[in-house]
Protein 1
Amino acid sequence: MPKNTPTEHRLSDDNAGVKIAAAQRPTASAIVDPVLECDNVDVFYGNFRAVTDVSMDFGINEITALIGPSGCGKSTLLRSLNRMNDLVDGARVTGRISFQGEDIYGPDVDAIEVRRRIGMVFQKPNPFPKSIYDNIAYGPRVTGMKPSSMDDLVEEALTKAALWDEVKDKLKQSAFGLSGGQQQRLCIARTIAVKPDIILMDEPCSALDPIATMRIEDLMVELKKDYTIVIVTHNMQQAARVADRTAFFTAHADDTTGNRTGVLVEYDTTTKIFEDPSDQRTEDYISGRFG
Amino acid sequence: MSVFAPISRQIGEGTIRGRARGGDTSPASILFLGLLWLSLLLAFAFLVTLIVTTVIEGSPRLNAMLLTEFPASRPEEAGARPAILGSMMVIGFTALMTLPLGIAAGVHLEEFSDRNNWWNRIVELNVQNLAAVPSIVYGLLTLGALSAIGVKDKNIVIAGATALSLLILPVIIIVTREALRGVPIEIRQGSLALGATPLQTLFRQTLPSAIPGIATGSILALSRALGEAAPLLILGALVFVSFDPNGLLSGYTTMPIQIFNWTGRPQDEFHILAAAASILLLVLLLAMNAIAIVIRNRYQKRW
């Protein structure tokens, strides 16, 4: 494997390694205004290091895709970005993840508030066993938002998620009556309703058919005007279609222990990653030679 | 993965059922099938015999007097009124004491405790063990505890309710945990990802979704307590009560104890009375189970 990967730096002198890594890694330098920054982030489950030394910034109002083979730690990293990993026993994060300059793992930071500002859409649509209306109104209610009109808030969220026209006549009906794609857009609308700054999406289309997938992708492009989106996807075409920037991760086996850990291989504009990747492993992956 | 899992499970069930229905026709499996049917038939025959003989024997006294009269030395004047009221009162207080405690314990173990902690694992294991302890042991435990704190008259409603609470508490904890486990993790994650606190998630999502399961299990547990006589006899429950129970410290009797008492009398008329009271108890138990089934079917959620 090539020299100067983050892992190897980690194994040598920590501080020196960080500097070299920062200088030599392709860092998608054109990010003008990063809203979320990761600096030397490691994620552990107990003693197992699932993600090693990730440093990357997420640009505001951009879609950033995290791609890579299974087990490369991209979902783990995504869940660290809004502290959803806190809910897993034994999970911990080292390094620094800052949202608008503030360390989200700082001692005075409330994880609940982090999750409100950085929302998440999951792989499988997970509507609550409630009406469509109550699914949307749930977030604003529990977070203590006092909108002048809850009806307007619900309509706005559903409209932004391109679902309003399909459900406006059945707001009081159970969300379970919707199709999979509609349910996923409902989950996106639910996330929008609490007015987050960032929306994290963990393979949001993997349970959907191609038409529903296309609608979600169109929606993401539409939503990036107002939100910053980070998406984990197994579908490389999807990353190529929607993402402004793409980060390629892979699982790297430790030379001595054989433990596999996720590392960031290459992070750049989507065009660069898919047309002219700098790293051989990225090229192998996107051309379908492994993973 | 998740897309295909439910489908393949359906296919799996279909094939297994298909095989059991008659795909396999070897003599050994036919013999085995016959034995299975025989065991079912035996169990069913016992049940039917029991119910039919009880109904035939008890029907002459299955009338309003059974509900309204107090026990008497003359069987034709006797009824089970204090026993019925006593059963209701004891079960009512049992429910009041057990449900909050058992549900809270189940919620804690399932939602908040750290499963890798050895202390929690011991608690979990012992809750399972306690559910299998014979009921009389709980009677003895209550008796001992009451003696230790110097209560002389142990034949009081609160004492009986305590013994029955101890008996069904582990069951309530277990059914609460089972019901909570049935709520998909995605629901909790979805709620938390919106910025809800763990307590909001519990009270607005997880617990409401688990209520049907908890209610069903709790009713079944209470119906078990309703049929118990042993722990109450140990506590000295009265067998001859000529007054209505009127509070926590009141003396009482319950239906199983009344039945036990009447069965032990030499006169045939009392045996008829016992049979009639048994039918009443059976009807009550069946009604409770029916309510549990209705709740389960009506509010069951399909994810």
Note: The CA atoms of residues 160 and 216 of chain B lie 23 Å apart.
Protein 2
Amino acid sequence: MRSFRKLALGASVLVLALSACSTGGSGTTIKIGSDDFDEAKVVAEIYAQALEAKGFTVDRAGIGLGARAVTAAALESAKIDLKPEYLGGGLQHYGGTPDRQPDTNRDLLQGKLNAVGGGITVLNYAPAQDSNAFVIRKDTADQYHLAKMSDMAPVQNQIKWGLATDCPTNALCAKALKDEYGLEPTNVTYLGACSGPMADALLKKTVDVAELCSTGPEIKTNGWVILEDDKQTQPAENIVPIVRNDLLAKIDQAKFKDALNAVSAKIDTATLAQLYYDVAVGHKDLKDVASAWLKSAGLVS
Amino acid sequence: MNILTDTLAWLTDPSHWTGPAGIPTRLGEHLALSGVSMAVAIALAIPIGIYIGHTGRYARLVVNSANLWRALPSLALIGIVLPFTSAMDPQLGFKVYPTLVAMVVLAVPPVLVNTQAGIAGVDRDLVEAARAMGMRERQVVRQVELPLALPALDSGIRSGAVQVVATATLGAIFGSGGLGRYLVEGVAQQDDGMTFGGVVLVAALALSVEAGFVLLQRGMKK
């Protein structure tokens, strides 16, 4: 009887040990998160499906978590392991000074991220860029002869502004507007960045200039004008996956990185805009848009 | 500990008590939005409540429909109403009217249901006695039913007011003023002091409204 018990105990320990040593990261769940606008969410969903196609287990609860400040904090504290980030905006968030060149921004961002959350790795960036854009309706452009941001200072208090709720503390917004363009408008409505209400406000003439994302579908749909950033305050904003080092240590790194780098290589600005359009204007389901694109790009079968 | 100290620091910072984004301004905006919503809700719900409570007609139908209204999510309502109201007025129709409508829809059910119950619950013998004395229906309502139903009315208005004060924070998502702005902006800017300062203020306001009405109700019972 005793030897039988020992045998049973030994067998169960062996089974437990074997199941813990599983390969391909099937024992580790990758927690994916993203900022809460449609473009970030669909890219995160694409990452999720690309990884699942390679056999990884994915948790999507963090998709659409909140503004960058929220998701960055979540990544640093390991509430999420992976999220899409923008080279310039991400670097700015960590106190860096972004450049117009994506490679420079990538290296600077990696430098900053080595020191947070126990180390975060920047993978390959996509050709696609989405930057902060100040957008006006065609009738406003015609009325005040506005084409670039420098044109705005003389009329700043005659028009109504729609700025992001994080604008006051976001260096790409309040600081850039004030320092480079002399803009400190008085008539401001604060709405979510790149959000439905922001685009609605511009459409309904509640505001005359809105802070949107440059790949935003509503810009094309409504024939709006993106004010040219002539003082080049907006840096290279390629979209890139960033991932915690402690997650990389627990999974098949090569397979993981290959999966995501293959995805990034195929996302150009036109693709990004189209994905954003399909979700935000076409009202198609995030998961359907992601899977349709992955199939058409030949990344999943 | 950090959140507590941040929140206390935010609430006690004198610069947060002045200016167009200061606490008094936001408080005033919030009270105005809530007050107007309640006024509209009362103007709609009390007459209907009195009618169905007094006559008994359609009572069940109206009360059940009102209870269905409670199930409508306020945020969705704001989104639905917005295109129509902003076509009327790009400023108020975007920032104020949709939230106003959603708050009225929120406040009507408790006021209506409590008014009906209060009026219908008045002792029928008293009502009959009043009629026997020669009072017209309108006098019966005004002089017998309404005074006796006042505590119930107050209770309904109180319930509606507290819900409205707590929910009017949603308007901030669409650019309206009020204490909700601290919640929305605090989260976006990762400023815990602002966010939880906003939470404390909304809770304090809701509790004050509740307390105010309770005192009123006690005064009425005397």
Note: The domain at 29-129+236-296 of chain A is CATH 3.40.190.10 (D-Maltodextrin-Binding Protein; domain 2).
